Amino acid sequence: MADAAKTISGVFDGKLAYDAAAFKAAAETIRHRSGKAMVESFPAGSFGAPSAAKVEIDQSRGEFAALARHLESLAAALSLAADNAPDGITESMRMAPGMAMGSSSLLGKRAGSATDADPSKMPAEHVFHLILQDCTNCHAKFREKRQ
């Protein structure tokens, strides 16, 4: 997932040339590894080495599953954006200057925040930022820091 995120980030940062197929493949990697697949990767009692998963996954299974599903829906929207932009990043894929990011992900969102909106109607760049936000929130709560 980290490599997929680096690919998408490189495209939005202008460090990598836009390639719709590569962009879509990266989004699909995130989509396929989130949702049900992510939850099934961490069954009850699977915390600790070698995964660095915290016991909080077991203690907050519903929250973890909701976050995994949210990540999947965001990645699906990003994949759709690649389908709709075969020749390059469109202006509609970019975040507008000053666009609000919302409060945070499912771990602490406020009602009416950007995470409540339909991600397929958001600029792809904004959706990607929400994906990164979900990753950060999930790792902060459910993953041990590695040295």
UniProtKB/TrEMBL annotation:
InterPro entries this protein is in?
Answer: Cyt_c/b562 (IPR010980), Cyt_c_II (IPR002321)
Instruction: Tell me the Pfam families matching this sequence.
Output: Cytochrom_C_2
Q: Which GO-annotated molecular functions does the record name? A: electron transfer activity; heme binding; iron ion binding
Any one of the GO BP annotations? electron transport chain
Report the Gene3D superfamilies cross-referenced here.
Cytochrome c/b562
This protein is called Putative cytochrome c-like protein
Which species is this UniProt entry from?
A: Mesorhizobium amorphae CCNWGS0123
